[in-house]
Amino acid sequence: MEFLKDIYFFREILLPVIDIFVVYYLVYRVYLIIAETRAIAALKGIILIVAVTLAANFLGLETLGWLLERFLGVAAIALIVLFQPELRRVLMKVGQGGLLTMYMDDRRDYLKDVNESVEFMAQRRMGALIVFERGVGLKNYVETGTPLDAAVSFELLISLFSKESPLHDGAVIIQHKRISAAGCYLPLTQRRDIRKEYGTRHRAAIGLSEETDAAILVVSEETGEISLAVDGKIRSDIRQEKLTETLIKVLGEREKPRKKKK
User: Fold this and answer.
1) Is 152 helix (H, G, I), strand (E, B) or coil?
2) Of 189, 197, 241, 243, which sits with the fewest C-beta atoms within 10 Å of its C-beta?
3) E-strand spans in 81-214?
4) How many alpha carbons lie under 13 Å from residue 16 in its C-beta half-sphere?
5) Per-residue pLDDT for 232 more than 80?
6) How many Cβ atoms are within 10 Å of 194's Cβ, its own excluded?
7) Of 83, 175, 184, whose CA–CA distance to 134 is shortest?
8) Whole-number mean pLDDT of the chain?
9) Helix 15-34 / helix 39-59 crossing angle, nearest 10 deg
10) pLDDT digits (tens, 9 = 90+) for 41-99
């Protein structure tokens, strides 16, 4: 009897819970990939239309429901045609790294580009202000700058913060491992107990960290010093060789396991 009870518990209770969890996890991972592309706007539109269609059918609005159902059928085909690059990208990621690890691997790669660019700018005393979105959205600050929606790369970061760039005085905001915007304006801290040698970039970094949970990297134009502002506090003892490790800890990343030498 105990054996039969165990089978019943597994099939009727535990298995459905596992099934729901797995589906939720897969949908969540796919969403993280789509969120990095222009397809996210279309996806939100489809969800809205589906919701309106269900509401129309529930309220008995047959004509409106019929029209929306026909529109969804056409829209599904149109989306496949319009977003072929995005679909190809998702399938390539699944094939290369697996659905469970592809997102984290990409994030580690982008931190490497950030590290190299910050090291380059620090050695040449190029001022820089790089913001990493965490839990709190930074849409209001993204809208103050020039939208880019570009992959993070060493070359792009260097070009954005070079003195010849019209965007070099503002901040670069990174969301979901992509540069959302550059030349963004950040709120300045009103504190008076910070170091006198801190300039506008440092004050802006502290100010944003006071209002959000973002992590902000600063490269001093005067000294080449690397600082990191988080939770209203700023550290100015960030060593270049420890920068990636520090960012991994602050952003909640996991470091890639090193391959053993044969």
Assistant:
1) coil
2) 241
3) 128-132, 146-151, 171-175, 178-184
4) 5
5) yes
6) 12
7) 175
8) 78
9) 130
10) 666 777 787 888 888 888 888 887 788 777 777 766 766 666 665 565 555 555 544 44
